[in-house]
Predict the structure.
Amino acid sequence: MLLEVDNLQTYFFTAGGVTKAVDGVSFALDNGQSMALVGESGCGKSTIALSIIGLVLYPGKIVGGRVLFDGQDLTKVPPREMRRVRARKMGLVFQDPQTTLNPAFTIGEQVAESILAAGGTARKAAWDRAVAAMEEVGIASAAERAKQYPHEFSGGMRQRTMIAAAIARSPSLFIADEPTTALDVTIQAQILDLIRRERERLDTALLLITHDLGIVGELCETAAVMYAGQLVERAPTASLLSDPLHPYSRALIGCVPRLGSRAQRLPTVGGSVPDLANLPQGCRFADRCPEAMDICRQDMPEIIRLENGREVRCYLHA
């Protein structure tokens, strides 16, 4: 197994209390597989990604669980070694390349730097590989454009640059955190197609983090729904989208606009997400759930593994 996240707990220790951003999350991803983490903003999706790649910043801290990558527990790896793991084996694409790219360095220098960070490559060879990677992701006249700065690129081209930096080292794991959020619909489709094509070409595992259910079915074989720091459902993407089992999954999918619908207003999920620093005793979705029972407010449901390989955290399926 390439990646195993086992009972991961990542908390933030603030003056307002302990925020349980990720609280007991487990999943696995093998070579060439793809999985989406889906949920509302603030549910802990991005914190999982930061925990995997070792970039949880103060006041955050991994307080429990393991992140096994190629058999190595990354939660116990020193920062210097973790940088080498990221550089050699992981490709990272974040949602806003405008803030990720350094305005003081050329595009080519920054893509080449991602190659040099892995070690074992001369600077000239890294530059040549950077230009080749830019060509691979569809940047025309890459040799010339590599000498330009981020402000000279459009949003879509900057995101292509980030993908070029990610694929230049042929990583075994590709993590994309909201990769199309800041782009218009046409450019979004191009970027998604590019991610799909490069993942298949390199046979790279993909962890996609998104709140947009519309793109999940296009890229991922499996989808996992997060709510208030926990996974509440995991299933093959087609099954999850067509027959969600958890009430929150059903509510989330019910909010997606549908072509041809005559509804005057989009459905919404009533109520509010609980405070992660002051969580309820039982199920974290109980106060918003139309099917909640007394036990839901008393005891936290555990993940239930069904015979068809699906997983759900809900007493309705106990």
